[in-house]
Design brief:
Blueprint (H helix, E strand, L loop, with lengths): L6 H24 L1 H4 L2 H4 L8 H17 L17 H14 L28 H12 L5 E4 L15 E5 L2 E12 L6 E7 L2 H5 L5 E7 L5 E6 L10 E12 L3 E2 L5 H37 L1 E2 L2 E2 L4 H31 L4 H25 L2 H4 L5 H10 L7 H13 L6
Parallel strand pairs: 1-4
Antiparallel strand pairs: 2-3, 3-7, 4-5, 5-8, 6-7, 9-10
The chain binds flavin-adenine dinucleotide.
Flavin-adenine dinucleotide binds next to strand 1, strand 3 and helix 13.
């Protein structure tokens, strides 16, 4: 086996870092007080300040011009369709160097649910592709992914939002919760029940619709503030007699759930790459601090309990990185989604990030919990990522189901 990072990928990472240094970081510097002071970053209702949205748009559009924004999108949507291995290595590299830069992630490279060339868009009718894709590809317009509801999270088959056909239109009613970017998105990929009998048997009956968020009947009620923040990106949506033309069905009627899974799996591997990169950043900080901080007359790096924490984090990162690379290789070589492995990678990498940040904070003592180093920010993020894209428990359920149905391969 050859674990060398391909030259092409190394070139992409090098170019991407140059782009971030030349285009994104100067913008951040100019707008530091807006971006790094929560009271300026969010408005009273928890949404991004309009100027923050303006900056995010500038970065998206510059990234699209430079070719980074669309590099993982499907070719049929006008993307470069670079594979999961490249995606993983690129996400790792960005998060080692720029783990919490406000305009870097997920702006330069979009999250596949929210922005850019989501794999779900491959199911759009040709006419709609012509109408909408240019704006999405250029970064001018953004999306959101509307599946979760107040009474349906892990158990997505419990969604109640329903769509009824009237002539050439669908009339949709219901509500959605935890929808990232909904407050700012131009379009929503909205999931609704179209055949309750099929849904009750968990065999289908859910359809995905492409919705312009400015359409009457679609409204964002509020933004949910998340851990330690004055605002957030996840929103609560009301859908009240929303009328959507039949041509806006994505893929086939009643088969929306398989479309959702397609997008979710791509996101899970990308999220793992971010955790692996960010954990390396935290470990480096811990090593550097252990060299300079002295207690009992010697640097703390000489205390064996500190050494053990560093070593445990290294073992965690090495295991996570190699399992993620192996999973990406499996996807690329088999061309099918290894569900058990994707679940193992998502659960392990997100949990690993929490352990590494926890140890890095402990090694820093009191400074570790100050909000000046970025460690507490990473710790909060690590706590959050164990919930979206499938909770740790749901991934364990998927893994166990595969094992118990006879898949004991590794
Ligand atoms: C920051 C953030 C962003 C999000 N963005 C989006 C988005 O853009 N679009 C979208 O559609 N959704 C989004 N979500 C929703 C996310 O997918 C759900 O929160 C997630 O699926 C869990 O659902 P829930 O919160 O309703 O928890 P529940 O499903 O109610 O779970 C509660 C607890 O029970 C456990 N549990 C549930 N079932 C089982 C079981 N069978 N066995 C063992 N334990 C179980 C869970 O693991 C959890 O610990 C986002 C969530 C967050 C936090």
């Amino acid at each position: 086996m050859d674990f060398t990072i391909p030259e092409e990928t190394q070139e992409i990472i090098k170019g991407l870092k140059q782009f971030i240094e030349k285009v994104v970081l100067p913008l951040e510097k100019e707008n530091h007080e807006l971006l790094y002071n929560e009271r300026n970053y969010y408005t009273e209702d928890g949404r991004h300040h309009p100027k923050v949205e303006e900056l995010r748009k500038i970065v998206r559009m510059e990234s699209a011009k430079a070719g980074y924004y669309t590099m993982f999108g499907a070719e049929e949507l006008g993307g470069e369709q670079l594979g999961p291995m490249t995606a993983l290595l690129v996400q790792e590299a960005i998060n080692i160097s720029y783990p919490f830069n406000k305009l870097v992630d997920p702006i330069v490279i979009p999250s596949p649910f929210t922005n850019g060339l989501s794999p779900i868009l491959t199911g759009l009718k040709e006419e709609l592709k012509e109408r909408y894709l240019d704006g999405i590809r250029s970064g001018e317009k953004t999306l959101c992914f509307g599946l979760t509801e107040p009474d349906a999270g892990s158990d997505v088959w419990s969604i109640k939002t329903n769509a009824v056909k009237e002539g050439n239109e669908w009339v949709i009613n219901g509500s959605k919760q935890w929808i990232t970017n909904a407050a700012h998105a131009d379009y929503c990929m909205l999931f609704a029940v179209t055949n309750p009998e099929l849904k009750a048997q968990r065999k289908g009956g859910i359809t995905c619709f492409f919705v312009e968020t400015s359409t009457e009947g679609f409204s964002v009620d509020s933004v949910i503030p998340v851990m330690g923040e004055l605002g957030g990106e996840a929103c609560i949506i009301s859908i009240d007699n929303l009328r959507i033309p039949d041509e806006n069905v994505i893929g086939e009627v009643d088969k929306g759930f398989s479309i959702a899974i397609n997008g979710i799996n791509t996101g899970r591997l990308g999220m793992s790459g971010k955790c692996i990169g960010s954990a390396q950043w935290a470990l480096k900080k811990a090593v550097e601090y252990a060299e300079i901080r002295k207690t009992f007359g010697k640097p703390i790096k000489e205390h064996q309990m500190i050494q053990a924490m560093l070593a445990e984090s290294a073992m965690d990162i090495y295991a996570a990185r190699n399992m993620a690379l192996n999973c990406a290789w499996k996807i690329e070589s088999s061309k099918k989604q290894p569900r058990k492995e994707i679940s193992m990678v998502k659960a392990f990498c997100t949990e690993m990030m929490g352990r590494v940040y926890d140890r890095a904070m402990q090694i820093h003592g009191g400074v570790g919990i100050s909000n000046e180093l970025g460690l507490e920010q990473g710790y909060r993020l690590a706590r959050i990522v164990r919930i979206p894209d499938g909770t740790s428990e749901i991934h364990r359920r998927t893994i166990a189901k595969s094992l118990l149905s006879g898949d004991l391969t590794f």
